[in-house]
Amino acid sequence: MKKNILLITCFFITQFGIAQVLLNEDFNSYASGHLNTNYTGTTAGQGNWITERHANASATAMVTPETGKGYVLSFTTTGTFSNEYVNIKQNTGVISALWNNRTAGNNVLKFEYEVFGTGFFIAEGGLLSGIGNFINLRFISSSDYRIEAYTQSSGITNVILKSYTSATFPNNTWHKVEIFFDYNAKKAYYYIPNLNLFRADNILSIKLQDNIFLYVSGLKIGSVVKYDNIKLTALPSVPSYILSANEIVSAKFNMYPNPATNMVNITNSENMLVEQVTVYDSTGKQLTTQSFNNQTEVQLNVEDLASGTYMLHIQTNAGLAVKKLVKK
């Protein structure tokens, strides 16, 4: 059942305060068949969903029965591989109105959904700002097999959370995706619980989200992508299990020597890839940032640092690790 909450809002209590469900969609109240028979992106269909696809594509977004789940949204094609894509989002103004009517102080936006894929496909879900993707997570099962996180801030980062082979890619199973946007801290978080994949990103240029989207492309005949349980929630703070995921990443890193004089070696136990290391002093002031080429072990020159205590923010493909360094 779909719930767009504008005047009457559904609340639930968390350990941080009152969370506010803005949208909850499981497709069970819909008629089976096309989510929207108009694929030009101009007219809203069931549940205010807009559908758009490649001009010559035959890919469809259909409400179909699923054993144990009621109805789900299924994407398939009978057409060619290269031209297949379908993008769905809410009708203009729906999500903006929900967000603008949230309870004051609920400045963390949580977007979650479940996704299933088999065959050749690219399946995405995320937030839009204007006409561009702002935050999204992407499953890619094609010539490259990987799961990526995409964050647009002052620039664009497109980071591989994990690479697979055709034999190891997690096909044929449902995955829950959780994406958080913390407006106060200017951070994005990506989490796939059953795959234990996590990433945190800084957002330097805040943009107001105005829609959510689901996107399927690269479909081949016989491939299927399904979505279910789409939910949008306004929270007063980022949940503790997300914040603790950073701590889990941090625990897997080792630095030596520490205390250090000139060079610090940074290693980890699970071959996580280091993208950059930022050094902060004890007051939280950012001092230096050094980029690395996705290396599992790096060396950081700290010769120019004064004696004292520093915090190293180690950005990796699995999230942000924070470690304390003492400079002699």
Automatic annotation (TrEMBL):
Keywords in alphabetical order: Signal
Entry keyword annotation includes Signal: yes
UniProt-listed Gene3D superfamilies: 2.60.40.3080
Ranges where the Secretion system C-terminal sorting domain occurs: 255-326
Keyword Signal: yes
Signal peptide, first to last residue: 1-19
Identification of the protein by name: T9SS C-terminal target domain-containing protein
Native source species: Paenimyroides viscosum
